[in-house]
Amino acid sequence: MSAAPKTIHQLREKKVVVLGGTSGIGFAVASALIEEGASVVVSSSNPKRVESAVARLSDSQQQYNADASRVSGHALNLSGDCEAALQAFFEQVGTFDHLVYTAGDSLATTPVEKHTYDTLVKSGSVRFFSAVLAVKTAVPHLRKGGSIVLTTGSTGEKPVGPGWAVVSGFAAGLDGLTRGLALELSAQGLRVNCVSPGAVDTELWDGMPEEAMAHLKSEAAKTPTGKFGQPHEIAQAFLYFLKDTNCTGRTHVTESGAHLGNRPGA
């Protein structure tokens, strides 16, 4: 009798919820999970996006290892007071193995002097406050031995320019939240980690002011890789955290080598 594999198929038949899994990094994570043989539940505030994502993930012409029985999706609005909506969502999903939080909104690159209390709260609504509520409401449904992977941004460590202070503050807060949750939830047999992408070419940038976009493009061109990150590349960091059962409380940065400074000649 041949030995069973130890390092492949770790996610086969695992049930993974990807909040924000209908576009960008979230969709890339969902796609990679389907390739791994996992079952995936995706969400978005836009019902049409949910329908489209489920169709693409189930279509063998577009998705390797596609299987409609392993893909489902639900509309879920994560802006504002969303705790009741999250509770209803997870009741519908039932028991599952891993939670991936990739939900985001357009980055509010607003100078501090132009912020008000309401705009500050709105800036962190989806990316920070709703992430906390998602963890709170998901935990009762997560199997022991499962995990949670949050998403922040490398701006928490290195702001990219004027107007990014508040965005950077919430990003840094997610790093601390990850470490705190990893300790808090360890007694329940759950791991918590976080992925911190740098510049990634996704749909979320569509509404960004031209000046901010131009700055990001110039910064990405100077990095050692000389390019934006692509969603399918960043997805591998999420899969690593789902698979490495010895890792918790960590944030993995994937940002084109920007921490090294500009590449020679840039």
Quick overview:
The protein is of the alpha/beta class and 266 residues long. The chain has helices at residues 24-35, 47-58, 83-93, 117-138, 165-184, 210-222, 231-243, and strands at 15-19, 39-44, 71-75, 96-101, 142-151, 191-197, 251-254. Strands 3-2-1-4-5-6-7 form a seven-stranded parallel sheet, with helices on both faces.
Describe the structure.
With 266 residues, this protein is an alpha/beta fold. It has a single domain, classed as NAD(P)-binding Rossmann-like Domain (Rossmann fold). Helix content is 39%, strand content 16%. The protein has 7 helices and 7 strands. α5 links the parallel β5 (142-151) and β6. This is 3-oxoacyl-reductase. It comes from Tilletiopsis washingtonensis. Belongs to the short-chain dehydrogenases/reductases (SDR) family.
Can you give keywords for this protein?
alpha/beta, 7-stranded parallel beta sheet, 39% helix, 266 residues, Rossmann fold, 7 strands
Q: Strand order of the main beta sheet, please?
A: 3-2-1-4-5-6-7
Which structural class is indicated by helix and strand composition?
Answer: alpha/beta
SS element count, helices: 7
Topology order in helix (H) and strand (E) letters: EHEHEHEHEHEHHE
GO molecular function: oxidoreductase activity
Keywords: NADP, Oxidoreductase
Family: Belongs to the short-chain dehydrogenases/reductases (SDR) family.
InterPro entries: NAD(P)-bd_dom_sf, SDR_DHRS6-like, SDR_fam, SDR_PhqE-like
